[in-house]
Design brief:
This protein is an alpha/beta fold and 501 residues long. It has 2 domains: 121 residues, Immunoglobulin-like, CATH 2.60.40; 293 residues, TIM Barrel (Alpha-Beta Barrel), CATH 3.20.20.210. It has 16 helices and 25 strands. A hairpin with a 6-residue loop joins strand 16 and strand 17. Helix 5 packs across helix 7, helix 8 packs across helix 9 and helix 10 packs parallel to helix 11.
């Protein structure tokens, strides 16, 4: 399930639209960002205040002059959520009581996979507007919004002052020694962030504050771009996964008929929102994800079908790589113009624990040429290229180097030995990783987390060129207290010169 960050939801949610109606209540979204086309929707789950589950048959969507009934049957009509169009959601049932309400919406689409978002609004008297919000409205009526001020936070983490400084990441990317081991995480899911801050994250200010207080030197930001994939859920569980034996794209006609998003219309406003709030030495980590070139191509067909198509339907494979690779290249060209961009991470899983998904020759013919073009764009702009993949993909490390990749993340423990990787490839790549998600962060104790962090620092920090991260990301099933133990221990024990006995 992809959690949509609260500050992005609030950019499209119409605050104050939550109202009781004659037969229930309604609320609205106004698409002020990227035009969306959805060719299918299913498994719609709406809950109110984490308690009341709304039956699907009681939900109706109104988009312009189109009305869509939600039921147990998937919605198969093409829905175009154009920029500046309004979506009203009508719910049949009991009226809501006065006061604050939290509405959580989860669903699956062919384009975006599993999505979960939360909105918060009031019935009756609204929250009293802050002085800042009043000022924004007043100035907005006169033709502009005041520029946000950088967020400066004083405090300590693991006995070390909060002082976000992207030069630590830059030192690691040069395979040099920074003042202390930096934390590196491309994705931390919202429930973990909210637990850490002790409140809901609903604004760009909240997002930046989390990354400062959690000890990071950057804020990850993604330009939203998604391609077709089939997702499945277990009954009674909103967690989703991508199917390997099924796919949406099977023929050239499927490629021609699919409502592809336009890479030229991808919304980059979040980069500007975040950049205005960053303290002077903090930067943005731009994300080319999820899945990027290989993952989006193989997932569009289903990995199993993709593998067969390499032999008997190659024209579809080639057309998909062209469609997706060229889209990411266009996005990369725009991405490097964003303010306060420090580096770019491309996420594109190429492997499982035992090795690459397909023969490396396939990557060399169809995937790496796109990586090289993206690497050239980033290199010309002076932006470091970081690459993420799960599994054991050491067989293509040299290919990635030739594409301009400067760092590898996260070195999955079950697939590769990070100490051996750093020893063999540390002269070519910086390394980010790899506190184990399989046990340590998810099922271990805080003492076990601290022990593992100290062990990794002792093994990998000497000589520089390494930053600490989880072995994939920080999903919602990580124990929050273990996440906190990981970042605090990194601060406490990661100061150079390393002195861990």
């Amino acid at each position: 399930m992809v959690y949509i960050p609260g500050f992005l939801v609030n950019k499209v949610y119409e605050r104050g639209s939550l109202q009781n109606t004659e037969d229930g209540f309604r609320f609205s979204f106004m698409n002020t960002m990227t035009p969306l086309k959805i060719s299918g929707m299913r498994d719609v789950i709406i809950t109110i205040d984490a308690e009341t589950l709304i039956p699907q048959e009681d939900v109706k969507l109104v988009l312009g002059d189109q009305t869509f009934e939600i039921s147990s049957e998937p919605l198969t009509e093409l829905v175009e959520f154009a920029k500046n169009s309004k979506l009203d959601i009508h719910v049949k049932g009991e009226a809501l009581s006065e006061g604050k309400h939290v509405i959580k919406i989860s669903f699956i689409t062919n384009e975006y996979g599993g999505v979960s978002l939360k909105v918060r609004d009031f019935i009756g008297e609204h929250e009293k507007a802050s002085i800042w919000n009043k000022l924004k409205r007043k100035i907005s009526k006169k033709g502009g919004i005041p520029k946000r001020r950088p967020i400066i936070i004083e405090g300590m983490l693991g006995g070390i002052p909060l002082d976000p400084d992207f030069s630590r990441i830059e030192a690691v990317l040069r395979r040099e020694v920074p003042d202390r081991v930096p934390l590196f995480e491309a994705e931390i899911e919202i429930p973990i962030k909210e637990w850490f801050l002790g409140r809901e994250i609903t604004t760009a200010e909240d997002e930046v504050e989390f990354y400062i207080r959690a000890g990071y030197d950057f804020v990850p930001v993604v330009p939203p771009f998604f391609t077709p994939r089939l997702m499945r859920t277990a009954e009674g569980d909103e967690r989703t996964w991508i199917t390997e034996s099924e796919g949406i794209i099977k023929t050239m006609e499927d490629i021609e008929n699919f409502p592809w998003p336009d890479p030229d219309q991808v919304d980059f406003s979040s980069f500007h929102d975040i950049a205005e709030l960053l303290p002077p030495k903090m930067k943005i980590l731009g994300l080319l994800s999820p899945a990027a070139v290989f993952g989006n191509t193989s997932q569009a067909m289903g990995l199993e079908n993709f593998a067969y198509a390499l032999m008997d339907n190659i024209e579809v494979v080639e057309a998909l790589f062209e469609k997706i690779g060229s889209s990411y290249l266009k996005i990369a060209k725009k991405l490097v113009t964003m303010p306060k961009l420090g580096a770019v991470l491309m996420s594109d899983d190429l492997a499982h624990v035992g090795g690459t998904f397909v023969n490396p020759k396939v990557y060399r013919k169809y995937v790496f040429p796109w990586y090289a073009k993206i690497g050239n764009v980033l290199g010309a702009a002076g932006i470091p290229f970081i690459f993420h993949s799960d599994g054991n993909f050491m067989s293509v490390f040299n290919d990635l180097y030739d594409c301009g990749v400067k760092a590898i993340h996260p070195i999955e423990p079950q697939a590769m030995d990070i100490v051996s990787v750093k020893k063999e490839y540390g002269s070519k790549f910086a390394i980010f990783g790899n506190i184990d998600l399989d046990y340590t962060l998810t099922r271990g104790t805080t003492d076990e987390v601290v022990t593992k962090v100290k062990h990794r620092i002792k093994e990998l920090a000497p000589g520089g060129g390494w930053g600490l991260a989880a072995s994939n990301s920080v999903p919602d099933y990580v124990k929050p207290e273990n996440f906190k133990a990981m970042i605090e221990a990194t601060k406490k024990y990661g100061k150079y010169p390393i002195n861990i006995k």
